[in-house]
């Protein structure tokens, strides 16, 4: 869970017209920018360098950089996002990652894969089949990672938009889990911080070095994470939540 680098991307005004499955209203753009700035400050407070990309009005959802790549120490995997409007986001991400990686792998069509459906726990990876990640894409990533010595489990999502919408890893064999993942057999070996239904959004957290960044406004889950021995940093995420965005979506961490 030790990171040195992160990549983020400022949201453009076109974000207001981006993809969403929620019914939480239209984002406020000025508030969105403020929340993104606070997110970047939170990352820097965790001791990582932040490579911040400029907005791309052509790609409304491109601030969710996590979906365009999966990174491990050995190489970067350029994904093939499941939404057609997002597919060309991978071009910029690959160019940026060339500053940090020499080796690349690629998810090829008809396989689709969003990075938000991929969770790493030490040498284990979990891939979720979702509306954005299909079986072919998951199988391709499974082979890529297993060839590099990782163990991969593929599971089909029933409730959540992305895998990491409902479960995230905090380190110390501990996950934050909501909904379908609370009693999911694939995660039976891990200690669980269970998120109540009314705070489901906060299942998407990120551990960055010695801190756990959580969305603000969810006191019960925050208290549970603190009681488990983790230091919590809160960031307001309301305007990203309106477009299905979570904390992990907004950065690539490595």
Briefly, what is this?
The protein has 254 residues and is of the alpha/beta class.
What does this protein look like?
There is one protein chain. With 254 residues, the protein is an alpha/beta fold. The chain is 22% helix and 26% strand. It has 6 helices and 15 strands. It has helices spanning 29-45, 89-97, 135-147, 163-166, 219-227, 238-241; strands at 5-9, 49-53, 69-72, 75-78, 104-106, 118-121, 124-129, 151-156, 167-171, 174-177, 191-194, 206-208, 211-215, 231-235, 252-253. The strands form 5 sheets. A 3-stranded mixed β-sheet has the order 2-1-15, with helices on one face. Strands 3-4-5 form a 3-stranded mixed β-sheet, covered by helices on one side. A 3-stranded mixed β-sheet has the order 6-7-8, with helices on one face. The chain is globular and about 40 Å long.
Distance between the termini: 9 Å
Main β-sheet: number of strands, strand sense, barrel status? Answer: 3 strands, mixed
Mean pLDDT: 96
SSE order: EHEEEHEEEHEHEEEEEHEHE
Residue share in β-strands: 25-35%
- The low-pLDDT segments are none
């Amino acid at each position: 869970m030790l990171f040195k680098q992160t990549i983020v991307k400022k949201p453009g005004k076109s974000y207001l017209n981006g993809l969403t499955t929620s019914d939480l209203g239209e984002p406020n753009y000025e508030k969105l920018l403020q929340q993104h700035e606070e997110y970047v400050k939170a990352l820097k407070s965790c001791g990582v360098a932040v490579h911040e990309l400029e907005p791309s009005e052509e790609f409304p959802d491109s601030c969710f950089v996590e979906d365009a790549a999966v990174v491990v120490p050995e190489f970067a995997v350029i994904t093939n996002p499941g939404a057609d409007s997002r597919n060309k986001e991978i071009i910029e991400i690959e160019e940026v990652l060339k500053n940090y990686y020499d080796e690349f792998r690629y998810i090829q069509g008809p396989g689709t894969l969003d990075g938000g459906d991929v969770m790493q726990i030490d040498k284990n990876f979990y891939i979720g089949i979702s509306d954005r990640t299909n079986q072919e894409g998951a199988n391709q990533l499974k082979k890529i990672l297993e060839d590099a010595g990782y163990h991969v489990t593929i599971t089909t999502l029933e409730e959540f938009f992305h895998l990491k919408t409902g479960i995230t890893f905090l380190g110390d064999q501990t996950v934050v889990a909501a909904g379908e993942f609370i009693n999911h057999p694939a995660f039976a070996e891990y200690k669980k911080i269970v998120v109540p239904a009314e705070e489901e959004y906060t299942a998407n957290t990120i551990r960055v070095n010695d801190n756990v960044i959580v969305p603000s406004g969810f006191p019960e889950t925050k208290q549970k994470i603190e009681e488990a021995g983790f230091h919590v940093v809160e960031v307001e995420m309301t305007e990203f939540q309106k477009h299905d965005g979570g904390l992990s979506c907004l950065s690539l961490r490595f």
